[in-house]
């Protein structure tokens, strides 16, 4: 009996779950031109006196579910330039309803001749009316369906679909809850990102397109940004419809061009066909980016003009020297229906910043979406074939396989990352757990250093590391190791503690720009050496606390080290140069015992040579005294700041930016020679971001120091103004920069260094200005820097500012 009740209960639940789907009328068919028989894509089909409707696909096919509670219902078929057709649907009405729309006979309305452009007058009224009804629109909720297709030069390579609920609040924006989805067999379920919450509403004041903020055609200031031209008049429902051309009036701003259709009387947008102007471009390796947006609106005989669809076409070409990808063709069609307007929305939607969420409790995959096909826009014939033919072996990597002499390196990387043993490269340490890698360097003290580094994570919160190697110049072994343990981890913060030991050659001063590895090539090519060195043996224990958002951290530590001087052992270089020997100065020898503190914002962001702008603030303090068993008594302070500010043309994906940097340090007590601070300059002709570009060779050093640098990236704007399109197309931009620096001290040097070495200070205040051509060959910048305080002109090469 209990088994019977259980089965009966499950059957009842099943019947209840499908009964809503059964209580609906499914109407489908094709919308065509009555004269020519040609299909009418994106025809507007709605249920009269409701917010329910759909659109036809590119072949004119449509499908619409009408709840029994609305029957009998009147279906209204609209298409600009055609006579509207109404059809009554009852319970006994056949499901197949093909509709042939008659072209309307357009009677040109009387255009009042004035001094004002008629298109401007019309659009001014559209903007005014929109501001009126938009103030009354507070929220809405709707059903959404989205389909995205990717294709290469020959065929469709993937399809993703989703059904969702979309929500909008005039203050808090969009949210979308995914209800069901499906995709072709070659796409993972987690890779299905089809949705509408991130799609633009082209009726908005500002429209986000691929990171660019475009001025909408109904923005309150649209008449300052666009020229409008009346092209023709047509009709809809016996009302005049104006077809108006949209022309950008500002050459350097990201704007739209295309056409809009305006309904006379209501002065509302019925449909737009827009594409971004030439300003909306992307840096290499994107060679071309072309996209267009079509959207229709309907007020459903109510007060608000709401989007009922979005149709996007996009073609992207990615190409660079030695690597050429097939054309990427993107298509999207979205349909919104069954609006509920000015209703309370659940507070839970806006508790998180995520615009797109998944209703895991009710999420359905293929079966539900297929059973609800009537809710969707029908597939085209090519899309039906793609669903039938694409299997899991038809990967996107194969569909967009590049050509060119660099393509084989991508193929080799894919083979090495595969599961099969064939094609794998030789990896002698592959069976050792953790990460083992070689370590090597060359300088005038170590000569050749060769060794290994090892890192291993035996548990989720524990990291262990070690290193070791031998220097041929001073015949010394270097070695070290340590561990770090995350003893506290919460959603908003975490804490680590650790210990490190080392016995090695280390640099006498610390650069936040260059590592010793960066100077290997210059050393081998005859550079006299950027760094000085000494021998350090000891340990450091630390504890670190980090807030995840905002990224704030505090680290405290205790170190105990023994410092010893090292001498120059070689002047060798590959070019056989003479006269490139440089003395390695002695340090203040002894034992160091100190406590240190490092705190700041965004300290986890690593230096990237200026490829992108940075935002961080760092403060460091180190205090040594005989209370800690130290031979040195001092307190050292240093602060560093880097910040990037957008300036002009902020509507662009990459606006003009001002980047500033500050570095300053001071001390109290008796600072040992190996604890002085530096201000970085160029190494040879290499000038990464954050240095003084008119200083070359050794860095400026001192017990006290301050440096300030700034650069403004105008990107391609100056060359766009001058009309130098070949330069603009190569994404070559202009950067202006300037900087100053000054160092003080030391007054005394270690006795063993005093007769042979003098610190390299600024000798006053260093002032410089310069200009850069940014983006040469897509990767480099050419810097020309001039000293102001004394005659000097330097030309350097650096990594381009890409973003």
From TrEMBL:
Q: Does the keyword DNA damage apply?
A: no
Tell me the protein's name. Answer: CarboxypepD_reg-like domain-containing protein
Report the domain of life of the source organism. Bacteria
Which organism encodes this protein? Fodinibius sediminis
Query: Which residues are the signal sequence here?
Result: 1-23
* Claim: Signal is one of the keywords in the record: yes
**Per the record, which residues fall in region Disordered?**
412-432
What are the entry keywords?
A: Signal
């Amino acid at each position: 009996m209990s088994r019977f009740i259980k089965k009966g209960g499950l059957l009842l639940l099943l019947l209840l779950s499908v009964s809503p789907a059964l209580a609906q009328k499914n109407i489908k068919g094709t919308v065509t031109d009555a004269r020519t028989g040609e299909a009418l894509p994106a025809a507007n089909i709605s249920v009269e006196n409701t917010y329910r409707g759909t659109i036809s696909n590119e072949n004119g096919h449509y499908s619409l579910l009408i709840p029994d509670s609305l029957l009998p219902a009147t279906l209204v078929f609209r298409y600009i330039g055609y006579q509207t057709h109404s059809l009554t649907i009852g319970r006994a009405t056949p499901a197949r309803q093909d509709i042939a729309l008659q072209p309307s006979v357009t009677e040109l309305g009387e255009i009042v001749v004035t001094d004002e452009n008629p298109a401007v007058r019309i659009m001014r009224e559209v903007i005014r009316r929109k501001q009126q009804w938009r103030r009354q629109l507070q929220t809405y909720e709707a059903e959404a369906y989205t389909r995205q297709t990717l294709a290469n030069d020959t065929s469709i390579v993937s399809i993703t679909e989703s059904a969702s609920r979309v929500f909008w609040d005039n203050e808090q924006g969009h949210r979308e809850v995914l209800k069901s989805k499906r995709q072709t067999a070659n796409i993972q379920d987690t890779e299905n990102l089809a949705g509408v919450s991130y799609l633009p509403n082209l009726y908005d004041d500002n429209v986000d397109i691929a990171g660019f903020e475009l001025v909408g055609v109904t923005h309150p200031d649209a008449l300052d940004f666009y020229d409008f031209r009346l092209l023709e008049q047509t009709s809809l429902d016996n009302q005049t419809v104006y077809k108006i051309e949209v022309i950008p009036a500002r050459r350097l701003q990201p704007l739209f061009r295309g056409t809009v259709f305006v309904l006379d009387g209501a002065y509302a947008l019925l449909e737009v066909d827009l594409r971004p102007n030439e300003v909306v471009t992307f840096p290499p390796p994107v060679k071309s980016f072309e996209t267009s947006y079509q959207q229709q609106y309907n007020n459903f005989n109510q007060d608000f003009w709401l989007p009922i669809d979005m149709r996007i076409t996009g073609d992207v070409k990615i190409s660079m020297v030695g690597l050429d990808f097939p054309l990427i063709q993107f298509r999207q069609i979205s349909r919104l229906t069954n609006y509920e307007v000015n209703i309370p929305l659940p507070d839970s939607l806006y508790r998180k910043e995520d615009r797109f969420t998944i209703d895991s409790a009710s999420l359905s995959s293929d079966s539900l979406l297929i059973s609800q096909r009537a809710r969707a826009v029908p597939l085209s014939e090519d899309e039906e074939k793609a669903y039938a033919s694409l299997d899991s072996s038809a990967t996107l990597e194969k569909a967009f396989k590049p050509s060119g002499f660099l393509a084989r390196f991508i193929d080799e990387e894919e083979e090495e990352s595969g599961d099969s043993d064939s094609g794998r490269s030789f990896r002698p340490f592959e069976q050792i757990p953790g990460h083992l890698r070689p370590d090597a360097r060359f300088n005038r003290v170590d000569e050749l250093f060769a060794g290994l580094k090892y890192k291993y994570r035996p548990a989720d919160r524990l990291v262990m590391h070690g290193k070791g190697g031998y220097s041929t110049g001073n015949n010394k072994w270097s070695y070290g190791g340590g561990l770090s343990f995350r003893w506290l981890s919460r959603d908003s913060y975490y804490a680590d503690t650790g210990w490190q030991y080392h016995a090695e050659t280390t640099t006498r001063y610390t650069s936040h720009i260059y590592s010793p590895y960066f100077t290997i090539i210059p050393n081998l090519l005859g550079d006299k050496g950027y760094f000085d060195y000494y021998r350090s043996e000891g340990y450091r224990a630390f504890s670190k606390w980090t807030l995840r958002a905002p990224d704030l951290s505090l680290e405290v530590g205790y170190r105990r080290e023994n410092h010893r001087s090292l001498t120059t052992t070689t002047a060798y270089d590959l070019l056989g140069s003479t006269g490139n020997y440089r003395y390695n100065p002695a340090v203040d020898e002894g034992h160091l015992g100190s406590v240190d503190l490092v705190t700041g914002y965004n300290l986890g962001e690593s230096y990237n040579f200026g490829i992108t702008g940075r935002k961080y603030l760092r403060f460091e303090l180190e205090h040594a005294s005989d209370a800690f068993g130290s031979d040195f008594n001092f307190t050292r302070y240093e602060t560093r700041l880097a910040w990037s500010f957008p300036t002009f043309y902020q509507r662009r994906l990459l606006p003009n930016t001002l980047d500033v940097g500050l570095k300053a340090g001071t001390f109290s007590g008796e600072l040992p020679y190996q604890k002085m601070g530096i201000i970085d300059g160029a190494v040879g002709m290499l000038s990464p971001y954050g240095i003084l570009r008119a200083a070359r060779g050794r860095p400026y050093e001192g017990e006290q120091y301050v440096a300030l640098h700034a650069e403004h990236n105008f990107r391609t704007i100056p060359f766009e103004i001058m009309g130098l399109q070949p330069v603009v197309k190569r994404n070559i931009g202009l950067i202006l920069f300037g900087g100053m620096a000054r160092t003080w001290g030391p007054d005394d040097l270690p006795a063993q260094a005093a007769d042979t070495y003098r610190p390299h200070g600024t000798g006053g205040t260093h002032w410089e200005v310069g200009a850069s051509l940014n983006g040469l060959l897509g990767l480099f910048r050419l810097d020309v820097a001039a000293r102001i305080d004394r005659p000097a002109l330097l030309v350097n090469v650096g990594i381009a500012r890409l973003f």
